[in-house]
Amino acid sequence: MENFFLKSKHWQLFLIFFILMFVCQISFLLQIELNESIDFFGLQTAVFMGCFLSWFYFLIIGLNKKIKNENLKAGTRNLLFLIIFPILYILIAFTIFPSDFNISTEGDSDADPIWLLVMFPVHFFSMFCIFYLIYKTAKTIKVAEVQKPVKFVDFAGEFFLLWFFPIGIWFLQPKINKLAE
């Protein structure tokens, strides 16, 4: 899997991620249209997120091998937690929490205040996990490229390209392919 993500062309990864997103959206629209009682949107979103975040995971693991100085390598101890927590959050938020979780500005909300107290910190921590994973991936790409310590200013471009991945994948993946050779 590591070689797949390191050596795939930018258009191949874009197509994989685009097709996964497209299938999730079409399936979700069909569920709404058919009024199905079984909602697979959470599972579909978790599968997409798992594929997307595994790209970051395998980039960090693979490019760490290209970094010569052991002190510059990204720590991988908590890497799986950073991936699994957001995926579990999506699964739980869309399957276990109350259905039709609706917050209204007009006063009549379906959301129980206790669920809100649970949802907000868990949601923000999930967002933190994703952004920290993007941060570690961008830093690993830049360190593998320059083979010296870097500051955020040095890899801010990679960070934002990973964050806006449908565009960034076209610029970053060719660089990753060169580094993986």
Task: Write up what this structure looks like.
With 181 residues, the chain is mostly helical. It is built from seven helices and no strands. The protein has helices at 2-7, 10-34, 41-64, 79-95, 113-146, 152-163, 165-180. The radius of gyration is 19 Å and the shape is globular.
Please give the structural blueprint.
Blueprint: H1 2-7, H2 10-34, H3 41-64, H4 79-95, H5 113-146, H6 152-163, H7 165-180
Could you tell me the mean pLDDT? Answer: 84
Give the beta-strand count. 0
The number of distinct helices, counting runs of at least 4 residues, comes to 7
> How does the major sheet shape up?
none
Q: Could you list the spans in which at least 5 consecutive residues all have pLDDT below 50?
A: none
Structural class, please?
mainly alpha
Q: Helical proportion?
A: over 70%
> Strand content of the residues, in percent?
under 5%
Quick summary:
This protein is mainly α and 181 residues long.
Keywords, separated by commas or semicolons:
0% strand, 7 helices, mainly alpha, 181 residues
